[in-house]
Amino acid sequence: MQLAPFGSWKSPITADSIVADSIGLSSIVLDGTDIYWLESRPQEAGRSVIVRRTADGQMSDITPPAYNVRNRVHEYGGAAYTVADGRVYFSNISDNCLYVQDLRSAQPDAVQQLTHDKTKRYADLTIDPHRQRLICVQEEHDSTELEALNTIVSIDLKAPHEAIVLVGGCDFYAAPRLNADGSKLAWLSWNHPNLPWDGTNLQVATVNDGYLSAPALVAGGARETIFQPQWASDDTLYFVSDRTGWGNLYRWRDDKVTIVYELAAEFSLPQWNFGMSTYALVGKQRIVCTYSQNGIWHLALINTASGHLTPLNVPHTDIGSIRATGNLVVYCGASATQTGDIVTIDLLSEARTILKHSNQLKIDPGYLSIPESIEFPTADGQTAYAFYYPPTNRDYQPLLGEKPPLLVKSHGGPTAAASDRLNLKTQYWTSRGFAVVDVNYGGSTGYGKAYQHRLDGKWGIVDVDDCTNAALHLVLQGLADPDRLAISGGSAGGYTTLAALTFGNTFKAGASYYGVSDLAALATETHKFESRYLDRLVAPYPASANIYQDRSPLYFTQRLSCPIVFFQGLEDKVVPPNQAEMMVDALKAKQIPVAYVTFPTEQHGFRQSDNIKRALTGEFYFYAQIFGFQPADSIEPIEIMS
Question: Rounded CA gap, 83 and 60, in Å?
Fold first, then answer.
């Protein structure tokens, strides 16, 4: 074992290997005995491809090379395809149009276009087999309108033409779901200033001659969140509600709502994307579900008749996209030592099979840092949570008395949550001698509704306090060097990063990935889905414009005294590039070291392999220059201006 300073350790976990071997796995769909999922491939410029696995174990790409299965409804998209009786219906991101592909035909690669208006986007596709039509959420971007128009529409599959609006009038819609005989449609809706995790309505209407009548409110409201409505074969409607302060499972039957199983845990997720699934119905009396407690996800079976919950013994602690058919359950699963996989479990034998790995890189456990779930004290006598990763590399030990540099990760959302799943980007840092702490600051999901609402009116305060106190907690324990504390985050996490660097002096450097520097600009320039998000997180705008300015790092750059690196996609509509550029200019004027790395063809989040690698190595290079250590790898420099 060699003696070497933290940060200078050589690691087999390289940016090249992470990008070359990694894909994103999501959006599982079952059609008979065939299993489908979506693969996002950085090696193909971020292209998303539908993959099918047949009952005999044959696996193949379904999507022809000219197509990219994604959508941008709510900008974040999701549920961009569905499959019914061997026909694949999907949205193509390059033109926003819908297509159908018949895999049972003599030409399974042949694709038929269903829609032609590029100003309309589609998500949450579901097939109405009784009327040969597709029902989905439509988002119309007419340049004459101030905001996009969201509706639920139907599209005739026999003779596709202009979509027919079934439901309209609300600002947002999601999850149109037909019951078994097609006589009822359930859906979710919500209005400004709410986002779907603030309050939603679950409604059901009768389907008459293809149109809807007698809509009725089943559950929800301005302060009750409903997640994943799903019909059972006996016309029971299941869903998740947070009415008790935790997102638990409920059912609606005979016009009555009753709880299925009560637990101080979260059975739901913040609906940033369409098509999220945390449970699936198994036969008439069982539900396979996943729930989160203290940031760890568990898999279980609930007997709906007895109300008994039985845990399932699986190694995964991050579970999603659950589907089931018969006794076969399929889901996306990950753990502290496993990247995301497509997994099946047979409920009779409990046998598990991995169908696809998101990363083929084989890593010796001696280079893996295993996260520890920690609690720590924070402002106002509160407790916050995080996952702490110690520096780990079997080939090295640090110099005597040296404390490691610490990278504090601030997740996006900010209603999202950090997970303990194996993240090779995190291991890139820890295997080179950094400690990492991934903070679930107040506002994060997975810890109950009260914890999530800690951020109400206090974005830029609670999150900053919690990230700062996570770092100070580790310093106090002797696990981090107080002179080499860095903070990094993307999107909302980028704002937390910039606010922590501007309004405090704990951190000595930082990295902002498409982060917000001017809250007022975000409130007035962002897309419809988030256009009123800050009403709850900060205050109504413009009535409280003074609060927006007081919490915007851009207007207090005179307080900055440490270097920052910015990474920005130039096609980003969520956080436009001028947010980063104004901050960069201010730092240059103060002659504080700053780097600005742009990616012309990226949107909100980076999908292309070269850009992902460039951002990861660029951030490491930046800290090496600021903290004064020599990387073991040869890294392409980024320009640091001052």
Answer: 15
The confidence band for 576, taking pLDDT boundaries of 50, 70 and 90, is confident
- CB 150, CB 137: distance < 8 Å: yes
Q: How many CB atoms lie within 10 A of CB 136?
A: 29
DSSP code string of 395-460: TEEPPTTPPPPEEEEE-STTT-----S--HHHHHHHTTT-EEEEEE-TT-SSS-HHHHGGGTT-TT
Q: Which of 121-130, 195-204, 513-522 is least confident?
A: 513-522
2-28 pLDDT tens trace: 999 999 999 999 999 888 878 999 999
The region of weakest confidence among 246-250, 334-338, 418-422, 576-580 is 576-580
Prediction pTM value:
0.92
The secondary structure of residue 358, as a DSSP letter, is: S
- Secondary-structure percent of the chain, ordered helix, strand, coil, rounded to 5: 20, 40, 45
Instruction: Please report the sign of the dihedral spanned by the C-alpha atoms of residue 530, residue 467, residue 581, residue 635.
Output: negative
85-106: pLDDT as tens digits: 999 999 999 999 999 999 999 8
The Cα 439–Cα 600 span in angstroms is 30
In whole angstroms, give the CA distance from residue 432 to residue 10.
Answer: 6
Name the residue among 326, 211, 225 with its Cα closest to residue 268.
Answer: 225
The mean of the pLDDT values for the chain is 94
Q: Edge-to-edge, what's the strand order for the sheet holding 59-61?
A: 24-31, 34-41, 47-53, 59-61
Cα gap 541→638, rounded to integer Å? 38
Instruction: Say which residue the tokens 């770092």 belong to.
Output: 471
Report how far residue 534's alpha carbon sits from residue 526's, in angstroms, rounded to the nearest whole number: 11
Two structure tokens written together for 320: 């999603």
Q: Which two tokens stand for residue 3?
A: 């003696």
Q: At what angle do helices 462-476 and 492-503 cross, to 10 degrees?
A: 70
**Which residue reads 């945390």 in tokens?**
278
Coil vs helix vs strand at 174:
strand
DSSP state, residue 462:
H
CB atoms under 10 Å from CB of 120, counted, come to 22
Give the span between the Cα atoms of 473 and 475, in whole angstroms.
Answer: 5
